[in-house]
Amino acid sequence: MRSLSTALTIADLKARARRRVPKMFFDYADSGAWTEGTYRANEADFAAIKLRQRVLVDMTGRSLQSEMIGERVAMPVAIAPTGMTGMQHADGEMLGARAAEAFGVPFTLSTMSICSIEDVASVTKRPFWFQLYVMRDRDFVRNLIGRAKAAGCSALVLTLDLQILGQRHKDLRNGLSAPPKWTPKHAWQVATRPLWAMEMLGTKRRSFGNIVGHAKNVSDLSSLSSWTAEQFDPKLSWDDVAWIKREWGGKLILKGILDSEDARAAADTGADAIIVSNHGGRQLDGARSSISMLPRIVDAVGDRIEVHLDGGIRSGQDVLKALALGAKGTYIGRPFLYGLGAGGQDGVTRALEIIRTELDVTMALCGRRDVRDIDRSILDEG
Length: 382
Ligand SMILES: Cc1cc2nc3c(=O)[nH]c(=O)nc-3n(C[C@H](O)[C@H](O)[C@H](O)COP(=O)(O)O)c2cc1C
Known about the structure:
Layout: H1 10-20, H2 23-29, H3 37-47, E1 50-51, E2 66-68, E3 71-73, E4 77-79, H4 92-103, E5 108-109, H5 117-123, E6 129-132, H6 138-150, E7 155-159, H7 169-174, H8 184-191, H9 194-201, H10 224-231, H11 238-248, E8 251-257, H12 260-268, E9 273-276, H13 290-301, E10 306-310, H14 316-324, E11 329-332, H15 334-365, E12 379-380
Helix pairs in contact: 1-15, 4-5, 4-15, 12-13, 14-15
């Protein structure tokens, strides 16, 4: 394998992941709902934001350290929760959590992960964050929250924007499932990625570790869409958020806010933070990009609740732009998955290094030394 140090951008890692990961799983990461218009807008709207170049400002002693929900972070970039991460690379969630821990940034484990909460806890020392999807079976939800507490998770990230699954054409065309089915098409996709296949043969973790064996009557869960249709609760309400907050009792982050009115309701719950997010363009195609909605949401609730953002971040420059527009923290979904697919734990570390370097150099060239002081004045707003 070519050294990961020759990967200079997240796009380089994406190209490598495409060569190493079977098509159905690579496509699962690199897809949005329907026309993928919102998925594309998330990235394009970042590119349209311009920075002010400043000169002859002391650039020594720069710092990227910050805080998210009161936790110290090496830079304000967390790993977003992503389902089926253990299909991008064997034991993917465990490797991602270890890379994040060593780097000093938060790792968020998805409910729909391949490695379980207990698996990730067994390979990390620092607390990670757990993302919750609310199922109809409230006993199962209660049990999941209890497992996250027992594992020492320091925040619960409650996702609000996926009670019904947005349609992603590629997943349907590919017949996505975990583990892969054994039709000739799927066998071919796996056979042409021998390194991935060998590593996958070396692990027993090939299904949904938080669910199979824990939820009633679920011994095998191959199709994400049928499980989602059966179990995700489309009646989820603000009252349920209050119930989950009580049940959890710790730091709570509400994920999937894209509207000022919802942001106000979220702030009223007394949660610790919201994530301005459209699920990486995977749910409501036709919604605006997260970065374009950020200023309005910060105006509406920024004095009451910490505001985070995800969606479309592909560089440290994008992180800086989100901070300039009022985010206290950011998350990366696909950049993490591409790093993982490209090179396992080292690939995730490489993705974080790329973003850190871009963030640091851009901040310096904008004439700033401390990431906590970034504000709108670094932007050229025309
Ligand atoms: C392959 C994939 C799986 C995802 N699974 C989840 C999930 O299980 N739970 C969740 O809250 N968000 C999930 N998301 C959304 C991410 O947490 C995040 O909102 C999104 O990826 C951010 O956009 P970005 O990929 O452009 O960084 C997923 C995203 C991707 C790409």
